[in-house]
Amino acid sequence: MRLVLLGPPGSGKGTQAARLKEKLQVPHISTGDLLRAEVAAGSPLGLQAKEVMARGDLVSDEILLGMLESRLGREDCAKGFILDGYPRNLAQADALDGLLAKIGQPLDAVVQLDVPTDLLVERLAGRAKAEGRADDNPESVRKRLQVYDDSTAPVIGFYEKRGVLAHVDGVGSLDEVLARILAALGH
Ligand code: AP5
């Protein structure tokens, strides 16, 4: 199964991908996690990304594509993957198409998690208190939501036109949302 999870910040992409990987037996690839690992390691890429991420902007498409290409090339992706956090704009959606065509692994499905904005803000404020993620402060959250509306939301239409997109209601318990995603995938 080659799956993309789309949705605004706080919609539950990471939470559900972590659960789906057990069900589908494919790796969860979060570009946010890959970037945070680079930041934590203090690598040159991490140093470049740190400020951009903290203020809620997108890291450059070139950096992301290089990172993704190397991750998808690893052996554990041979049977598929769950992509969380990529693509984030139309250029990345095109780049992903090119990359997957090159490795002969077209997407099977794209799931969009729908959650109202007030609930997103509430969830991210909760995580800010519990985990203190650098970009969960109110100013960065506002920016991330704006970047989502401006750059990422058009990706929904890109996959809708292909007929591979399923909308899933992301409001409910973790088990309820997981069951809806699995149903949308025909599992
Ligand atoms: P990334 O890590 O992808 O952050 P995000 O998209 O803002 O996503 P979040 O992790 O905030 O939300 P999520 O949808 O995964 O929800 P989660 O499950 O965590 O990206 C971070 C940054 O990296 C970007 O801003 C950018 O700078 C950079 N970046 C990453 N990818 C990039 C790309 N492709 N191009 C350029 N730059 C890129 O849940 C959130 C909270 O809600 C948690 O506390 C969770 O416990 C809770 N929750 C989840 N589901 C439920 C539920 N059903 N009920 C109640 N609470 C719930």
Offer a concise description of the structure:
This protein has 187 residues and is α/β, with parallel strands linked by helices.
CATH superfamily: P-loop containing nucleotide triphosphate hydrolases
The ordered string of helix (H) and strand (E) elements is: EHEHHHEHEHHEH
Sheet having the most strands: 5 strands, parallel
How is the CATH topology named?
A: Rossmann fold
Instruction: Let me know the average pLDDT.
Output: 97
What sort of overall outline do the alpha carbons produce when their principal axes are compared? globular
Question: Which regions contain 5 or more consecutive residues with pLDDT less than 50?
Answer: none
**Helix coverage percent:** 55-70%
Alpha carbon gap, first and last residue? 11 Å
Number of helices: 8
Question: If you compute it from the alpha carbons, what radius of gyration comes out, rounded to the nearest whole angstrom?
Answer: 16 Å
Q: Which molecules are bound besides the chains?
A: BIS(adenosine)-5'-pentaphosphate
The main sheet orders its strands as 2-3-1-4-5
Question: Structural class from helices and strands?
Answer: alpha/beta
Strand content: 5-15%
**Name of the CATH first level:** Alpha Beta
CATH architecture heading:
3-Layer(aba) Sandwich
Annotation, overall tally of beta strands? 5
Count of structural domains? 1
